[in-house]
């Protein structure tokens, strides 16, 4: 019998949470009467997470695992899980119990109404620092403004997706993964359900500010070339200010004759070169951005439905 649901769980130093997490997931899925697998991706944990996972999988053959040789990062861990999951629907959930496993029931019910993606949107976040909440809040809002992809606000990777989406993700071989952006980019029918984000049960966050910053930059560079456009605009701005100042420099040199020796030529060259340089950087950036899209090798489009094959058969 085919597996109806896979639960993908990235794990980085979560030893204290795994037993209870596993228990709660099994309880929910059993109650839902689904055939399922639980797939742990151990992202180079340095604690006893691996032995706990091995124990869990020895006790229950529906528990599978992948163990990385070192810490490759959360997004890579989730990607590995999605690549190896065998279920018809796949849930991505954190290991620290911030995402309540019981919510999987609602996500599953919703996706069966005819969606390909149902995200879990945080209504609030408990037990996280003020700075983390604020930076996340603004990051998602700015990202939304500067990209053409409709990335849902206040959602992490806690969601359920159809197998189809996981298969398309495999055709996007970009190495800097930003899954919530990639999934939004793929399209189809996507919706969100709200949930209360709990406090982490044990341990501490594996997302340092350094990792968060890298993640934010991955998101921006993969889904927007706005920062680049700013350089070009700035170049034109500096150039037009330069033009006005250059006129003024000539005016004071030749008409007012009120000038300091060397000021005119110095101002003109500095402003002129400054503006030109910035425009030039912007132009180079535009080419780089195009190369960047080609290097990513994303498919150009994704077809949901067509009758091309039917017509071919008739000929
Ligand atoms: N995680 C991971 N690799 C990392 C950092 C985190 O696999 O390098 C896992 C972690 O075990 C958890 C999930 O990703 O299951 C979310 O991480 P965390 O709870 O540390 O982030 P936060 O909730 O603080 O944003
Ligand atoms: Mg967490």
Q: Provide the low-confidence segments as ranges.
A: none
Number of strands: 7
Average per-residue pLDDT, rounded, comes to 90
Strand content: 15-25%
Based on helices, strands and strand pairing, what is the structural class? alpha/beta
CATH level-two architecture of the largest domain: Alpha-Beta Complex
| Hetero compounds | uridine-5'-diphosphate, magnesium ion
CATH class of the largest domain: Alpha Beta
Radius of gyration from the alpha-carbon trace, in angstroms = 26 Å
Per the CATH scheme, the topology name of the largest domain is Spore Coat Polysaccharide Biosynthesis Protein SpsA, Chain A
Provide the CATH superfamily of the largest domain.
Answer: Spore Coat Polysaccharide Biosynthesis Protein SpsA, Chain A
Net shape: elongated
Q: What proportion of the residues is helical, as a percent range?
A: 40-55%
Number of helical stretches of at least 4 residues? 11
How many strands, which pairing sense, and closed or not: the largest β-sheet?
7 strands, mixed
Tally of separate domains: 2
Order of secondary-structure elements: EHEHEHEHEHEHHEHHHH
- Largest sheet: spatial strand order: 3-2-1-4-6-5-7
